[in-house]
Amino acid sequence: MQFGRSYEEFEVGATYKHWPGKTVTEFDDHMFCLLTMNHHPLHLDSNYAEETTQFGKNVVVGNYVYSILLGMSVPDISGKAIANLEIESLRHVAPTFHGDTLYGETRVLDKWESTSKDDRGVVHVETIGYNQDGKVVCIFRRKVMVPKDNYLEQRGGEQPGRPVPQPDKNWPGPDAGE
């Protein structure tokens, strides 16, 4: 399975559909709110949401929606990234509710080679997130610095930093039983 892409693998105009989707549970939303100290009653208080908001129920906190979509995009977009350079824009265009399933896809808007280092480049992408009904709920654009193939080759290839299992008394090695 591919995990991220090198600069050469990105094509302007390409769209990557992220899989699988993620169903947002009440627990997920509440835990994220509590971890990030966002105690707004729209997200945590069912009675408040039912009685005083236009939605009539809790709304999933937007930063969690964004985080899910960003995470979904990692295997396709930034799994090999050197750096996330910029979140250019982030728009929440419709609410997400407990029980909704989020899906995402990312389109490559542009790419260019680094002017300071010849072993990397920048990709400019837009990710949209939508629910099980196809309703777009979140849109964001970002710029990611990604390695070129020569950068990866110099650092161990597809899985840089991965150790090699060492034979010992518990495991004699892959060829020991032959």
UniProtKB/TrEMBL annotation:
Q: Which Pfam families match?
A: MC_hydratase
Q: PANTHER family per the record?
A: BETA-METHYLMALYL-COA DEHYDRATASE (PTHR43664:SF1), MONOAMINE OXIDASE-RELATED (PTHR43664)
- What Gene3D superfamilies does the record tag this protein with? Hotdog Thioesterase
Q: Which organism is it from?
A: Nocardioides oceani
Record protein name field = MaoC family dehydratase
Q: Which InterPro entries match?
A: HotDog_dom_sf, MC_hydratase, MCH/BMMD
Under CDD domains, the record lists: FkbR2 (cd03451)
For region Disordered, the annotated ranges are 151-178
